[in-house]
Amino acid sequence: MNKDQIKAFFTKVSEKQNYFAIISAIIGLIGMFLPYATVSFWGFSNSINYISTDDGKIYLVLLIAATVFYFLKREGIGCIISVFMACVALYDFSDFTNVSNETYGLAQQNSGSYIVLLAAILMVAAPFIGAKVEAFIKNNLNSKTNS
What are φ and ψ of residue 57, in 5° steps? Predict the structure, then answer.
């Protein structure tokens, strides 16, 4: 990519909204309220969701900001914010591995941690694959309705 293409990616306004990114943001928002981690010890169990952590609040702000930019058809800025969001999610995901090792396996990741990380990665990839996914869905729907 040359300098003009990079500048156009960040400054252009898309023709249509990126629904793939918006759906990924909804999935990420749902994942924040699911159990992120569980600690079990002698029959007692305690779960925590991602929204109740400090990094979860940072993730939520970045998620809302990226979704607003995707909604306003500014994919380049939404992608950059999504990169920071993915870095927060990836850091917490990898840091939890250390916590699990330190607690001798008493702490375990739950579905919320995987969904939050997946949604962040999908939002980063949305400007590059969103239109292709939408075209694929339209082609399959058209071919099934014609059959």
Answer: -70, -35
Give the pLDDT of residue 87: 92
Q: How far apart are CA 75 and CA 19, in angstroms?
A: 11
In tens, the pLDDT along 19-30 reads: 888 889 999 999
CA 14 to chain centre: 21
Backbone angles phi, psi at 42, to 5 degrees: 50, 45
7: enclosing H helix or E strand: helix 3-11
| φ/ψ (deg, to 5) at 9 | -60, -40
Q: How many residues make up the chain in this entry? A: 147
pLDDT at 50: 82
Reading the block at residue 63, the tokens are 């998620």
